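User: I'll paste a sequence; please echo it back and then give the predicted structure.

Assistant: Echoing your sequence first, then the prediction.
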Amino acid sequence: MPEFHYRASSIGGEVVQGAIEEESESAVVERLHERGLIPLQIQRQVVRFYALRALDFSTLLRRISGRDILTFTQQFTALLEAGLPIDRALSICARVTENPRLQSVVEAVLRDIESGKSVHEAMQRHPAVFSRLYINMVRAGAEGGVLELVLRRMTEFQESTQELRDYMVSAMVYPAILTMVAGISVVILLTYVLPKFTLIFSQMDKALPLSTRIILDMSYIVRHFWWMIIGAAALVILAWKAYVSTDEGRVRWDGLKLRIGFVRGMVQRIETARFARTLGTLLRSGVPILVAVRIVRETIGNQVIARSLEHVQNTVKEGGGLARPLMENGLFPPLAVHMITVGEETGRLDEMLLNVADNYDREVRNVIRRFTSLLEPMLILTMGMMVGFIVLSMLSAIFSIHEIPF
């Protein structure tokens, strides 16, 4: 039976933690409710290696990650749904938050609320932590008296976004390891193995095959000018990052991604899912559609697509719908636009947008799965060809020196 670690709060505000063996997370929640506890965080116990824990960069750099915000939202929502007032819920969240930077932010939000500010006004003072999407949803929920319901939807939104992001990262772990192993193998061959052959070949008065000379020259360059290679690579990366950080560079780079066949389809699916899920969540939470479209523009990663939404925003401001301007810009898949049209015609736009998001999230996973299934054997084949070329080049030189037919 799996073991779950939990953190919970009593009605009196006391935070307790421990471990429970149960079949599922829902069973743990029921056990905690029977004890009169409000679940704040439930996590299945897994085996983690110390070395991997040491690579937890979010902990080392003390930055506030998306997962930290998700955990805070889950805890805050659970406490509000249990009937606790906002200030008391925030006080408990500040005590149980593991990230010290987020803890200080939550405490600052609590102080502002106690001084008379509303929740969204207090969160608005920390734009680096709480996005405009988050703040506007909290504002809509607080003004409508359904803050816990809106936060529950925000939790679902963050969970879906984090799940897709985690899936994309985990899908690329194995190809990244293969690439790293291939690079390390080639570097070892060029810097450690081949120099031993160079000493042997230098004593022979024989012409070496072209492939062998190429490999030996590469070994010489890597061993003696490795600092220039690293410096040049660093300069190229820094120059590229500086260029894409400008408005013009970012637009050109995003435009290039939309002109490459496979990349265009992937970018369209990801941005369509993000657009639909963000807009659908905002509309379902009671945010006016004009404000929602303006917020969605800021959440879109591709600047070409984000700028195309300005026409959509102007059309909505004039009283028009979403589907027609989305169809005109040609950057969203036709299926998604038709589903949005149906949602507008039936008066269930928010529901249809969330369906579009779920649909394209599944498509993104399928595309990534197919891509990685093809990428892995290609990387293995490429690694084998690189190492094989080096080995065959050395063997051909050895056989030519001893006049052995090869």
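Residues 46-61 have pLDDT under 50 and may be disordered. The two ends are 62 Å apart (CA to CA).
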